């Protein structure tokens, strides 16, 4: 049986020896023996204590960091595998405080698997390792002292004297791998408020800030152990929307994409291993007034009387009032000309060509300068009624021969097609005074059923889908007189091979008044 436990039978037989297995290492067992025959069982012999040999402990694993503070760290380690619950393992946590010194010094010895090491320096790196030793219980339970030989990884030995109740000397002590641990830093102090470097611009400001204040009143910032790794600059917009606009190690930055003439609030804080420090006091900075922003594209509308109305909206404020607007107009971008400048937000134009392409753009100006032009706006004026016919005439006699009607009762008009102003010409109106004639899309027309030898005043106008254009200028045209009546033909004398004919009136006055030309035609019996 083991100490403090009852005896139990472990062998029964006729042999005078036995082998016991599955015993605990480094453990004391008490044995007693009794003999038995046919008469009965003898009494037990004197008790004998025997000890099993101890196992060499496995190499302990390196300690783990549970939590680190500014002046303390908490470490944890595991119990070696293969150890029985009855085995008592003592752990020693050692520390290396100086990187230039390879010596480790004990900080804790005990059976716990966790230890908090205190009174350390802030922002300092240490190395820790764990050693473990296997002990056994003493037979008599008395206080005993023993010398322990601690073997380090580099073969150095250290001797310690340990007094412990119920324990006997260690079998072997081994050290784990070392664990580097760094204590935390104290967060930086409050930075100085940022200020503007140079003069604010209308869209950006250049900020700078000084070194941080030391968090220790009696210790300079350079010796506080709180080296700053970066700075963070926060900007608050007029709508109270805060955002980080810079983070980095520099002591200055440029913040862009700002609105002109606008108040912004800035503050800065520093970061180190201990975290972020408090924000600095707020600095309010106003950007300079800038040129106006880009105007929106002008709006173009057409009035019933043929005018073009251009209107626009004011651009966003740039910290200064608009002093004037500039409107450029032309048939294309290369021909743009300034047609208006002033403070109004609209302008009316007249006398533009109908059905013509135009373009325009707008620019706003204030005391800081001129803003960018708006987008180019294209437009086409609406179609209108045709222009007046510029050329109207009556065809001469040679042309009249192509028409079967007598020139005494008809007139052949000819004209040039006017500009249709964006809509195809559909017809023409011919005005003869009391009579109006509508003809199709042609440039020639024969006016019939006129009076002979009569003067007419004629004008013409073109018509399209929009309406009728203005009339042309009047022209005067006169029909020819009627032809004379057929003369009386007589045979005055007849010969064998000749005939003497005469016609007309022998009155001399008639011959003087009428400049006539006679045509004599002869036909034979064969109708030739």
From TrEMBL:
Ranges for domain Fibronectin type-III: 1-55, 59-154, 190-290, 291-384, 396-482
CDD domains for this protein: FN3
Subcellular location: Membrane
GO cellular component terms given for this protein: membrane
Keyword Repeat: yes
Membrane topology: Single-pass membrane protein
InterPro entries associated with the record: E3_ligase_FN3/SPRY, FN3_dom, FN3_sf, Ig-like_fold
PROSITE patterns: FN3
Top-level lineage group: Eukaryota
Keywords: Membrane, Repeat, Transmembrane, Transmembrane helix
Main localization of the protein described in the UniProt heading: membrane
Family named by the database record: Belongs to the FNDC3 family.
Protein's name according to its UniProt entry: Fibronectin type III domain-containing protein 3B
UniProt source species: Camelus dromedarius
């Amino acid at each position: 049986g083991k100490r403090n436990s009852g005896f139990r039978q472990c062998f029964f037989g006729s042999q005078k020896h036995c082998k016991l297995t599955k015993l605990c290492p480094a453990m004391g067992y008490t044995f007693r023996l009794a003999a038995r025959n046919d008469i009965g069982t003898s009494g037990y012999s004197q008790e004998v204590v025997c000890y099993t040999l101890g196992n060499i402990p496995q190499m302990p694993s390196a300690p783990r960091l549970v939590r680190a503070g500014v002046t303390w760290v908490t470490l944890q380690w595991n119990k070696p595998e293969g150890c029985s619950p009855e085995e008592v393992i003592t752990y020693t946590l050692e520390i290396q405080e100086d990187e230039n010194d390879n010596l480790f010094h004990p900080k804790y010895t005990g059976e716990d698997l966790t230890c908090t090491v205190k009174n350390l320096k802030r922002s300092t790196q240490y190395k820790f390792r764990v050693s473990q030793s296997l002990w056994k219980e003493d037979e008599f339970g008395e206080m005993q002292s023993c010398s322990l030989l601690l073997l380090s990884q580099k073969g150095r030995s250290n001797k310690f004297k340990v007094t412990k109740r119920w324990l006997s000397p260690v079998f072997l002590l081994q050290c784990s791998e070392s664990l580097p641990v760094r204590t935390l830093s104290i967060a930086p102090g409050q930075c100085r408020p940022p200020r503007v470097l140079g003069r604010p611009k209308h869209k950006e400001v250049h900020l700078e800030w000084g070194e941080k204040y030391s968090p220790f009143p009696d210790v300079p910032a350079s010796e506080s152990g709180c080296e700053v790794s970066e700075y963070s600059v926060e900007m608050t917009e007029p709508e109270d929307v805060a955002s980080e606009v810079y983070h980095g190690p520099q002591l200055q930055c440029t913040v862009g994409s700002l609105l002109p003439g606008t108040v912004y609030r800035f503050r800065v804080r520093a970061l180190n291993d201990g975290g972020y420090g408090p924000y600095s006091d707020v600095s309010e900075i106003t950007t300079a007034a800038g040129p106006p922003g880009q105007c929106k594209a002008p709006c173009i509308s057409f009035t019933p009387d043929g005018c073009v109305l251009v209107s626009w909206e004011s651009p966003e404020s740039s910290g200064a009032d608009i002093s004037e607007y500039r409107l450029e107009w032309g048939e294309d971008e290369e021909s743009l000309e300034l047609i208006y400048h002033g403070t109004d937000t609209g302008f009316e134009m007249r006398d533009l060509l109908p059905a013509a392409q135009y373009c325009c753009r707008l620019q706003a100006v204030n005391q800081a300068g001129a803003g960018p032009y708006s987008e180019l706006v294209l437009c086409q004026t609406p179609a209108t009624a045709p222009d007046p016919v510029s050329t109207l005439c009556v065809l001469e006699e040679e042309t009249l021969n192509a028409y079967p009607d007598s020139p005494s009762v008809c007139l052949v008009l000819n004209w040039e097609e006017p500009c249709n102003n964006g809509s195809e010409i559909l017809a023409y109106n011919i005005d003869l005074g009391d009579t109006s004639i509508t003809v199709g899309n042609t440039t020639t027309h024969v006016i019939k059923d006129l009076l002979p030898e009569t003067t007419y005043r004629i004008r013409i106008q073109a018509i399209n889908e929009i309406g009728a254009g203005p009339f042309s200028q009047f022209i005067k045209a006169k029909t020819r007189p009627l032809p004379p009546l057929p003369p009386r033909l007589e045979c005055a004398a007849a010969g064998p091979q000749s005939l003497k004919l005469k016609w007309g009136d022998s009155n001399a006055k008639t011959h003087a008044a009428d400049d006539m030309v006679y045509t004599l035609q002869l036909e034979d019996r064969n109708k030739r």
